[in-house]
Amino acid sequence: MGVRLMVVDDHRLHAEALASALKLRGHRVLAAAAPAAGAAELVISRAPEVCLLGTAAPAEPGIFDPVARVKRERPQVAVLVLGPVPSPRGIAAAFAAGASGYVRHDERIEGVERAIMKARAGEAAVAPALLQGAFGELLNPAAQPDDEGQRLLQMLTPREVEVLVRVADGEDTRLIAAGMGIAPSTARTHVQRVLMKLGVGSRLEAAALAARTGLLDRAGASIP
In this protein, which residues make up the domain named Response regulatory (predicted)? Predict the structure, then answer.
């Protein structure tokens, strides 16, 4: 039997792609996207069985406040945090706020579905490999952890950063060209360069990678 669930994420393209994949597997998806500021209100009003709540910065103070509010007002809702590879502090903060589990942005759909079923059953849903990595970091902390999002952002020109943000917002080549005041052929070239630099084969993969690494949040801050 399908699960009544929600996918709530700042980045519409990523949220809708995941929601569509879950619908194809027989689940009832109530909503696909919402601004982070309104995530808790949306979940509380719809009261799904399980909510996948996206975040790009699991170690940022207060990032899991929406989780805590949902659990306070709708304790029956199981909340799964969807985000990049977290630090041990990030995992601890998610569970401390009341999350039922943590799922990586780049997890395969089968893994996401397993986490959903565990969460609905009242079990903790976090991949053993993720826990192992987190405990490994606790025991052997890196002096200067690699910031993949920042590294990828430095590979892109300011114009390519804007293109990536528009791709993640679901704009096609025509909309990108109109929004940036350039020819469609030029927009297409920019998109191809972004895909090449990020090492991905599609716009959807580019959006997922950008969301997973926190690149989109850094990109948004850099665009005037």
Answer: 4-120
